Amino acid sequence: MGIDLPLIWAVIIIFGIMMYVVMDGFDLGIGILFPFVKGKTDRDVMMNTVAPVWDGNETWLVLGGAALFGAFPLAYSVVLSALYLPLIFMLMGLIFRGVAFEFRFKAKDEKRHLWDKAFIGGSIAATFFQGVALGAFIDGFEVANRQFVGGSLAWLTPFTLFCGLALVVAYALLGCTWLIMKTEGKLQKQMHDIARPLAFVVLAVIGIVSIWTPLTHADIAARWFTLPNLFWFLPVPILVLVTMYGLLRAVARHANYTPFLLTLVLIFLGYSGLGISLWPNIVPPSISIWDAAAPPQSQGFMLVGTLFIIPFILGYTFWSYYVFRGKVTHEDGYH
């Protein structure tokens, strides 16, 4: 029995995207929360919590995109053709956010508000269009003769726009619980106050997406609600409710680390639900990872280098977070 290279590459891409969502999600969430925090000192602390690690977080986005291009060129060509505009808008948001990161600390007081706005706008735009792209991916793409044949605005639907807003709320909760873990005093208390209503909004949008998706996609409804699948997949929504209950309890008792960890579990469960709905299609609704795979020789050649480099990425990521562990204060920075 040979090695299933498309399956291995699918796992690598899924892992890379999940790492990106987790790691870039909370620093995008900090930008989304910026309008709710007015004080310069508190905003400085918020940015300092991610300043040492934010640019390294995007390594996983590059890995996922490069792996898709090399291992599944058909999927890359279809998805990029279908999502040119939202992905360009997402990249523009990331650029504005990145420039604001570097220039805000160097700006004079009277100009700093411009970089604050760039940071806020870039974070919201990048997150929103990531959600739009995700919604379009769930909706599927019109493909004929292995080419995308839909319109340039086929991605623009009420469902995709709602997915964009849903991801903004989810990243805001991730950023909020990150700040609970990394800050103290007045800023931490404010994040505790924000976390509870944010958690309820996240639960609401998860419920709406979970209902909207099967109502508009018969194949996804059949995947979830036919027997015996229903019994196999029922633990996912149950775990979402249990995790949300635990998150609300942790926020109520002013825990430091538990809210962030439970939010990560919530993100992972949402990601799992997406995988259950679409697997094994890499170009929904009908092109599987095996249909879209590059030749085995190409996948095997790339796999050698990828399996060599991923441990190094994981290593320096772990080390950077380990070095910059602990709370952040305006007076002392990390301590």
UniProtKB/TrEMBL annotation:
It is a multi-pass membrane protein. The keyword Transmembrane applies. GO terms for biological process: aerobic electron transport chain. Its EC number is 1.10.3.14. It is an enzyme of class 1 (oxidoreductase). One of its GO terms (molecular function) is electron transfer activity. Pfam families: Cyt_bd_oxida_II. It is found in: Cell membrane. It comes from the Bacteria. The chain crosses the membrane at residues 6-37, 82-99, 119-138, 158-181, 193-215, 230-248, 260-280, 300-324. Keywords: Cell membrane, Membrane, Oxidoreductase, Transmembrane, Transmembrane helix. One of its GO terms (cellular component) is cytochrome complex. Its main location: membrane. InterPro entries: Cyt-d_oxidase_su2. PANTHER family: CYTOCHROME BD2 SUBUNIT II (PTHR43141:SF4). Belongs to the cytochrome ubiquinol oxidase subunit 2 family. This is Cytochrome bd-I ubiquinol oxidase subunit 2. It comes from Pseudomonas fluorescens. The lineage of its organism: Bacteria, Pseudomonadati, Pseudomonadota, Gammaproteobacteria, Pseudomonadales.
